[in-house]
Amino acid sequence: MAKEYVDMNTPVIEMRNIVKKFGDFVANDGINLTVHKGEIHAILGENGAGKSTLMNQLYGLLKPTSGDILVNGKKIDMNNPRDAIAAGIGMVHQHFMLVQPFTVTENIVLGTEPTKGVQLDMATARKNVVEISERYGLSIDPDAKIEDISVGMQQRVEILKALYRGADILILDEPTSSLTPQEITELIAIMHNLVKDGKSIIIITHKLKEIKESADFCTIIRMGKYITIWPA
Ligand SMILES: Nc1ncnc2c1ncn2[C@@H]1O[C@H](COP(=O)(O)OP(=O)(O)OP(=O)(O)O)[C@@H](O)[C@H]1O
Ligand SMILES: [Mg+2]
Q: Got the DSSP string for 11-72?
């Protein structure tokens, strides 16, 4: 039997000729995206260009009308976010999905299924939250209630939640739109900590300045069509 091995040149993500139609409307018209390990890859495009639609397919929220998605060189049939998470993909949406009266740790554990017959161990979960927070400089208080922390902190909780679930590839949809300039600087530092550790990041944005400061590559989408890729 052929031995399986990971080729460092194999992209972590390849989206090939992705077409997504909503009825007659073509939201993605043959889009290609290649992301390598340790890369920050921006997706740039105007409002309605089809950026979120493309990423929602990578996260299993939408099915492509046609085209292929490969993760670490293997074609994956994504039917829901669970498939994406199993493939090591995490997504932080523009609008967070946290439960306000719950603590950070409670939110992070929420939805992870405890092993059959084993009680959900909150103390261990909390320890893991602290460990991930420290490793990437997230500065998250595991016991704070979501309703008591800033929007920037809530976003970090979403990032930590994806990492807790084992994400190696993080999709950030317009992560800077609700942040202060100081928080944007901090987010970019966190992104660099993540890629230094071998994670890959896809960041949706329409701000050129941020791309220049943070991204290694940039794919441009205009009116659903793939335009070009830039070394940023
Ligand atoms: N579920 C849907 N049904 C019908 N049309 C949709 C659906 N989702 C998105 N669209 C349309 O597809 C196009 C691309 O939308 P998308 O949300 O991907 O854009 P975007 O690049 O993320 O824009 P924005 O910067 O506004 O977030 C838009 O014209 C949008 O109205
Ligand atoms: Mg969008």
A: -SEEEEEEEEEETTEEEEEEEEEEE-TT-EEEEE--TTSSHHHHHHHHTTSS--SEEEEEET
Specify the residue with its C-alpha closest to ligand 1, atom 25.
Answer: 47
Question: How far is 164 from 56, CA to CA, in rounded Å?
Answer: 20
Angle between helices 181-196 and 122-136 (to 10 degrees): 100
Beta carbon of 47 within 6 Å of any ligand 1 atom: yes
Sign of CA dihedral 223, 10, 86, 133: negative
Output the CATH code of domain 13-231.
Answer: 3.40.50.300
Alpha helices in the chain (DSSP H): 51-58, 81-86, 104-109, 122-136, 151-164, 181-196, 208-214
**177 C-alpha vs ligand 2 centroid, how far in Å?**
11
- Say what the pLDDT of residue 118 is: 58
Q: What is the mean pLDDT of each run of 10 residues along the chain (232 residues)?
A: 61 97 96 96 93 97 97 95 96 91 93 61 90 97 97 96 97 92 94 97 87 88 83 68
Residue 114, pLDDT score = 55
- Tell me the CA–centroid distance for residue 172 and ligand 1, in Å: 16
Alpha-carbon gap, residue 172 to 157, rounded angstroms: 13
**What φ, ψ does residue 19 adopt, rounded to 5°?**
-115, 130
The amino acid that residue 143 corresponds to is: D
